[in-house]
Amino acid sequence: MSKTTDNAHLVYKLSNNFSRLLLEFGKDYERRILEKLQRRGHPLVRPSHSSVFSNLGLGAVRVTELAERALVTQQAMGKILKELERIGYIVRDIDGSDRRAKKIRLTERGVQLVKDSMEIVAEVRQHYAKQVGAAELDDLEAQLARCVSRIDLEYLPESWVDPEMAA
Questions:
Q1: Is 115 exposed, middle or buried (0-12, 13-18, 19+ CB in 10 A)?
Q2: Angle at the Cα of 124 (from 137 to 60), degrees rounded to 5?
């Protein structure tokens, strides 16, 4: 096998593997949602903001916990939160149990963004169901959910991995 063939094989493996497939699917999914959110009246929402909204969970949460869930530094999370606060989606309140800490919660505008997002997620899911088939998409989602529940992802809140809590 020639060096060029070896390199082509390696490049192919780098760009066509499980991780890359998940990443590309996720990027397309988020891009579609973001475009629809912007058309629905949220023009300042950016991809980096999903690290906050996808990790808020239920109720108010501390900055340190958000950063841990999003797998970013506290400084990076603080910068994103400052921007979201400036555009009116979140507020940072002093934590009653630790006056040095801040808890993040959604404003009314933030709650509306979440509601719009849920409707848009359903629309995007319908798009994918048409493209790949509803049964295949259901199966993919179920398989991924089972995998996530079996992997010890310590940064996820319990409410995300325990189906009983979602009921």
A1: exposed
A2: 100
Check: CB of residue 51 under 8 Å from CB of residue 77.
Answer: yes
> SS3 of 58, please?
coil
Inside any domain, residue 11: no
Q: Enter the tokens of residue 73.
A: 């530094």
Domain presence at residue 7: no
| pLDDT tens figures, 19-36 | 899 999 999 999 999 999
Confidence label for 40 from pLDDT (cuts 50, 70 and 90): very high
Tokens 């997620």: give the residue: 121
Residue 76 C-alpha from the chain's centroid: 16
- What is the domain range of residue 104? 19-155
